[in-house]
Amino acid sequence: MIANIIPLDYFAVIMFFISFFGIITSRNIIKSIIFILLMQTAVIMFWLFLGARYGTAPPIVYELGMLDDLSAFADPMPQALMLTAIIIGVSVTAINITMLNALFRKYKTADWLIISDIARKEESDD
Amino acid sequence: MLTYFVVIPVLIASLLFVFSDNKSARVLAIILQTAFTAFSFYLVLLTRGGDTVTIVGGYIDFLGIYLRIYSVSAVFMLLTSIIFLVVAVYSFNMTDSRTFWFLLFILEAALTGLYFTRDLFNIFVLVEVSTVVVIILLMFNRERRQMFGGMVFLMLNIVAMQFYLLGLAYVYKLTGAFDIAYVSDAIALSDRADLILPYALIMTAIAFKCSIIPLFSFTPKTQLYPAAPCAVAAILSGVQIKTNVYLFIRLQEVFGSFASHDFFLVVGIAASITGVILAISQTNIKMILAYHTMSQVGLIIIGLSSGGYYSQIGGLYHVVSHGIFKSALFLTAGIIYRSYGTCDVYKIKGVLKRLPLTGVVTLAAVLGITGAPLFIGSVSKYFISYDVPTWLMWTTNIISLGTIISFIKYSGILFGKDNGLQGKAVETDKWRIIPTTALGIMCLAGGVFGQQLINFLFDANVSISLSSYLEKSLIFFASLAIGYLIYKYAVKGNQVLKRLANLNFSFKSVCMSMGVFFGLTLIFVGIL
Q1: What CATH number did the domain enclosing A46 receive?
Q2: Cys bridge to A46: A12, A25, B262, B297, which one at CB 3.0-4.6 A?
């Protein structure tokens, strides 16, 4: 399996920087938001790979004897924390999309360049 | 005990959420906030005897969540509670909106949590909470253009915090803990090569939040500050950025000997010079103040990174003084805007005649920010350039010269003949005048009693020698004269500066500069 040769966390880091590249290059705001989501997913993946190595068991103890060898378990800490990170990610994305919705209704476009041009013109009118 | 400090603002917020249209509830909230400020003052006294720690949940060692306060965070806490008190009084008559009052105090709770927490993951959560709250407060006027700025600001913050989260994952991989004390112990033992990537990732995020990088966070400021309510701008500039400076201090401590101070010294110098040049080019009074925040934060970073004991104390005191004079300037700018109906620095004239008290407070704050003798800025700038190399001392003098030039432009609004522009209301609201006057008095008192105040707040033992203070005062008056000449002959009507004022950085270019900063940190820390 490829995961045995290349550690999985490298994939997550590569995905992080690919989505960063996507954020820089995309012209559409929706695409930028999707790339930000992708970036969050990459980070969450990285965290999960930290705890759950190939061959580790889920951190559920149903026999007392299992506690002798703790290294056999996946680390439950990242999993618990990533739940919080996922919730934060969802809520900020929701706020983002709400704002984009309001902007789209006014400007009828989701293009970065067009919207920022209009916003700049409005500013100089003040 | 420390848990109550986070809970009390939440309780005040809930009280105001239920009774937002009731004035007596607001009076009660202000009384509670005053008591809260008094307790923060007590915390400063408490940290004299060493750190105070509360363990939430009762788990000891690195499993538990620790709240800890020490002398630096107690001062930040005191500053935060004072500014929130002032802003709460200032906006007493501004709005009945329950969203505004609720979020104002929730923000205070989040910032308090940030000062107390000893857990790296909690920092992530609380920073996200405070960012979202600030953005909703900034868009409080519900203008569509602000919404665009708000969206850009939010997206940039999310991207920056992803850098932080990835860096934190590396830290967890190395150390297996989130508690700052344990992490810094473990980092001291680990290999330098392993630390390069997490340090670069985390510091990129923190530097973005501090808005110290040149080319950085211009977009949010250009688009958000001009139309945002002045009370919120005062909080954003006076307190929220200070929180990020506090995080900068903490995380540099976590990385200990690995942390690169030289790199941030260079970045601080670059940020403050860029900020000053952009501030000179602006014509909107709020924008001048907004860009100045960048340059002053750069100055704070210079003080914190230059390594000398005195300049470190100076940097910390500059946090306090900047919080005070910047919020005074923003709040008075709000009053001036209401009275004149415009923010154009060339159109407003004769503030001292029309609004005498506001004019005097503005003058005091301007003297504070430029570092005039006897005012608060002079003391902190004196200490920042006290024990640094000569070239750095002259760099700070040049930055001060830039500050003076832009505030010569700004103080043009104070003098001259009233040109009869009329805004919405002539200011007679005592709820607005009392807090701004208090801030103006603090600008003077913080300068006159500067030495005693520093020794009290930071438990330090520093003294101002009269001869070198006089020398600094002479430098101030000399740069005032030079600044006036430069302003008159080089700045007024300069086409290059006019073009600079319209400089606008898009979301993508700010993201790109975030990437460039990340790369630079990697190179600087990894190779040099």
Answers
A1: 1.10.287.3510
A2: A12
